[in-house]
Each structure stands twice: as C-alpha cells, then as structure tokens.
Amino acid sequence: MRSVGRTARFGLAILLALALASCVTPRPGAEIAIEGVTVVDAMSGVRENQRVVTRGDRIVWVGSMGEGGPVSKRVIDGRGRFLIPGLWDAHVHFLYDLELTESMASLFLAYGVTSVRDTGGDLAQLFGIRDGWQRDGIVAPRLFVSGPLLDGAFVVYDGATAAQPELGTSVPDTEAARAKVRWLHSMGADFIKIYELVSPAVFRALVEEANALGMPIASHVPLSLTADVAGPATGSMEHLRNIELACASDWRALLNDRRALLQAFDEGRGYELRRGLHSSQRLPAIAAYDADRCREVLSSLEGTMQVPTLRLNAFNRSRPDRNPEWQAATRALPTSVRRRWQGVVERLDEGEARSDMTFADWSLFLVGEMRDQGVPIAAGTDTPIRLAIPGESLHRELELLVRSGLSTREALFAATVAPARFFSLESEMGQIAEGMRADLVLLGANPLVDIRNTRRIEGVMSRGLWLPRSIR
Ligand SMILES: [Zn+2]
User: DSSP assignment, residue 466?
Assistant: First the structure.
C-alpha cells in the first residue's frame, strides 16, 4: 500500500466499509443520534454543537446538545465534524456503460451521493435495477428515472455503436408524443426527458401532456427552438446545451439555418445530424456572443433549473485524469472499465495539442452569469460519460461550480435543495430538519470554508442506515 496515496486508502476503506454495511439489514424504526456535530445546510447555514436524531428513514429531532430530544441507544460522535444533507447527482445514466452499472450504487453512496436522477435510459431495465436492489437488500441511492430520451423522427442515442447506446426513442409526431408521455406516466416514470431532435410541435405536445399529468420535465434545448422559448416550458435544462446558439447576435439566422437543415434531413443517423449542427454552429455562436441578448435569454430562465454538467462541458480545461482523487478512485472500478478508460486517457494525451478550450471556458463563464442573474443551478455530472466516476465526479462538479462564481453555500444548495425542488420534494429532502428524510453525510471539515471538504467523508447515512468509515 506504500505507493497508494492517502485518498486512495480512504477510497478503498470506505468502499470496503460500505460493502460490509450492505450485508446488514437495516432495522426499521431504529434510532440513531449524531451528537455534538456542526450542522451545515444550504438553507439554515451553520449550527454548532447539535444533536440530530433519526428514526428509520426520517430525521425526528434536531436541536442543541443539552436541549433534550428522544433518547437513542446508538450514538455517533459528531464532535469536530460537520453534517450535511445527503448529496444529489442530478444527471446520471445507469445504462450508458453496462460493465459499470452494477458498481454504480455503492460508488455513489461511498461518495455521499444518496439520490440520483437518471436522465435517460430504458425504463424496464432501470426498474429492474431498482427492484434488484430492493430484492437483494442492497443499500443504494434513491433513484429517480425519466425513461428514454424522447427524441425526434431521428434518434441521437439509437444503439448503433457502443459510444451511442440505445438511450433514446423516436417521437415522430404529436400523437406519438402524447401516447409516449401517457405510457411513461402509467409505468411510473418520475419525470420526462426531452431531447434535441424533436420538432417544435412535438416539443409542445410533450410539454402539454406532461403538465396535464403533473410530471416534471427535463430537457436539452431542441435544435429546432431557442433556449428562451423552450427553457421556460421545462423544469430543468441540461448541459447548457444550445444556449450559446440563443445568445449569439445572429441567433435568428442560426435558427433558420438549423431548421432548414433539420427539414432537409430525411435519411441517416440522428447522431450525425446533431453532430453536424453542433459543429457548424457552436463555435461561431460563441464568437458572436451578445451580452445584451444573453441577459434577455437568461432572464427567461429564472424559473428553470440549470444542470450545467461543467465536469463534462469544461472537460478540456479540467481533465479528470489529471486529479489524484480521480486516479485513486479508478481503483474501485471493474478491471475491464479501468483498462478501457486507460486507453481513452492515452488517446486524449495524443490529441491534447489540438483540444479546443472555447466551449469549456464559455461554459464556466456562462454559469457565473446565470448565478449573477438568479438562474437556479443544480449539480449533475452525466456520469459515467467521459471518464466520470460515480460519486467522485459530483465533488469535481461542486469545485467547478465554485470556480464559476457560486459561493460554497450556493454549490451545496445545487447538490441538495435544488434537485429536491425539481421533484417538489423540498419539504422532504435537501435540509437537516425534523421530518426530512434520513440521508446525511458526516464530514471531517467544513464545506463552506472549502468546497473540497465535501470529499472528507467520515460516514454516510442512507435512508436511516448508517454506513460508517470503519477502516482508516
Ligand atoms: Zn445525459
């Protein structure tokens, strides 16, 4: 172990601890008290010397030490430590890399991620995963699913290659749109995810049907629309996708060109269609950035949560493999995935001289603008796409949000309250208060002082089950 750094030992230790903990069946109704701890959440700020009591999957008491509260047989010493709400990753894909799927739940929990939004994948397979956890007593994060990406007549993720697995489904017309949403609702999907190749009419039909059924909507801005038109109709927008096209001084001409190309396309793959549109418009649009126009666009998004996935967007500026935490975390990946990713890293190194920073820098800049204009922001990673390790990548995302201009407290909000709010669950999740769900992360240092302290995990509580870091 001498060659392994501190973080690596820690990563392995917590994974081992979690593996052991997952064999223990949680006793429903058991009380746990975390005592003497400093409670930190994005709504209430910092409260020192607290006692937090959980019973089953609820926080039943929060107060100062000495104030009383329910007696508990099981006590966790929180002195000198910091307790935050369980973290969310608001953008993941369990079915993107099937060699990794099985490892994802324990990885997320090891890094304090107790809730995730799966933003695109086959519904039956996703439910199969969730049912399997339940059946086998596996401790896992709360999983919210959208089912497949609702795409246009052509589908970007159509399963044609390993890099484009079948995450999407075709929605060629408004009738199909309404039927698809009704089906997703009847199957129990938690929200819908609209993708980039839908027509304006299909987009409207999807939105109307989801609203009628009370389903939250996540979306990429369709290429046939602009961010200020599509965004306000949805609850969340992903990856800042296509906002640059709306923020350009010549946005009208760009939109007309895209529509002409979309209409003329009657044969071929959705992936290539989208790639062609991005590569012909993205960098010219960023070069034609118009600050006044963009302020207008962003002012239309004040009610739409943005999940910028900076980890993905700013990849060229901030390669994950350059960080010791990432290197250490790869040791917990299945061998086949680790080897494959090593090959990816080697190819990235070879092409590095040609890698363009424009989009990375623009993404970091735009999130700062959004923050200044009061646009709500949530933390999501697109794990496991582009070398994103489940859980580890969320901490990277938090760092990048702070680098863009968010305060540490705003970054914590982005990974706790904001995603809960998307599902109208803010009275249940995202804070440390009586009546909230028992998802917690115990840290060795204050994340409001340095956001990197969210990595200093001493233990995790998931649905009232305490997962200690038992080996140091
Ligand atoms: Zn995604």
Answer: E
Please tell me whether residues 51 and 174 are part of one structural domain. Answer: no
Nearest by Cα to 147 from 173, 172, 128, 126: 126
3-state DSSP call for residue 114? strand
Ligand 1 centroid distance, CA of 238 (Å): 8
Rounded to the nearest whole angstrom, what is the distance from the C-alpha of residue 91 to the centroid of ligand 1?
Answer: 6
Q: Which residue do the tokens 């623009």 mark?
A: 362
Distance 313 CA to ligand 1 centre (A): 12
What distance in Å separates the CA atoms of residue 149 and residue 130, rounded to the nearest whole number? 19
- What is the total count of domains within the chain? 2
pLDDT for position 13: 45
Domain that holds residue 56: 1-85+430-472
The rounded Å distance from CA 191 to ligand 1 centre is: 14
Domain identity same for 109 and 162: yes
Over the stretch 216-247, which tens digit does the pLDDT of each residue have? 999 999 999 999 999 999 999 999 999 999 99
Q: What is the CATH number of the domain that holds 447?
A: 2.30.40.10
Residues with beta carbon < 5 A to ion ligand 1? 119, 382
Q: Which of 452, 417, 434, 441 is nearest to 78 (CA)?
A: 441
4: CB partners within 8 A, 6+ apart: 12, 328, 331
DSSP strand pairing (440-443 vs 457-462)? antiparallel
Question: Would you state the structure tokens that stand for residue 348, as one six-digit string?
Answer: 């990235």
Residues 438 and 320: their CA atoms lie apart, in Å, by 31
